[in-house]
Amino acid sequence: MSDIQRKCLDCGGPMSEIRIIDKQGAMPEEAGLEYSATDAERGFWSGAYPKAGKISTYLCQNCGAVRLFGKKA
Ligand SMILES: [Zn+2]
């Protein structure tokens, strides 16, 4: 996953994948971000939004800029 080489749009520095850790103490394997369409409705039975994909987070090693990339499931 982290083998994709991304460059910072602001300074051209190397970006490496990071994991955002929220303050709710989620288990590491559950801490990844996911997304759904804005018009998606919660599942009647599950109460959860249908996942459209995952979010990868990259941090610039030079200036600290953070970018999010969506990857369709
Ligand atoms: Zn940068």
* Strand segment count: 5
**Helix and strand pattern:** EEEEE
Q: Compounds present?
A: zinc ion
What's the N-to-C terminus distance? Answer: 14 Å
Mean pLDDT score: 84
The total number of structural domains is 1
**What's the tally of helices?**
0
Low-confidence sequence ranges: none
Overall form? elongated
Radius of gyration: 15 Å
Which class best fits the helix and strand makeup? Answer: mainly beta
- Please state roughly what percent of the residues sit in beta strands, choosing from under 5%, 5-15%, 15-25%, 25-35%, 35-45% or over 45%: 25-35%
Largest sheet: 5 strands, antiparallel
Proportion in helices:
under 10%
